[in-house]
Amino acid sequence: IDNTHPTWTSVTFASGDYVNNAEDESAINLVIITVGVDNSQVVTATLNSAAYTCTLSSNTCTASITAAGLQALTSGTAYTFSVAVSDAAGNAATADTSESFTYDSTAPTMTITSSTVDSGDTSNDANIALTFTSSESTTDLVEGDITLSGGSLSSFTGSGATYTATFTPTTDAATSISITASKYTDAAGNDNTVSNTFAWTY
To answer: Which residues pair with 35 in a beta bridge?
Structure first.
């Protein structure tokens, strides 16, 4: 009589901790390694009520999580796989729920404001204070990502979703500050969209 239940060595999702709006355009592999399961047994991985299967060979198989299945997920939500298998004698392994990820398909946005003037204003301020507010936290926004016309930045600082700087005009003229698309990313690796253009005439 075989009443030994199989176990798991590992369940590994190829995308890691996140799936972003580029990665969900194609299938992503879920690699499953078991202990004590016969060849040709079928593993079922359930994600968001959808079942993905693969057939074991030497205790290993790879389930393909389809692009359609990924795109059906809700952005900003964490998901956990539930992976099940039985051996040929019908002994079921305890479901594996060790692998999880966050689906984030939303591109971060950027808003540029000033506490000194409003966009579109004309004034004789020697410089203006700027605030850059991202809709999501980022770690790779740098001063060089900012497009300037008619002036220069100094004292650029910040972290997470909020950054500040001082803008000094070059001469009496119209100036502008903006950030083009794909300059920084959120935690999932989504590129930012284009910011507003902050306009000020000195």
So the answer is: 7
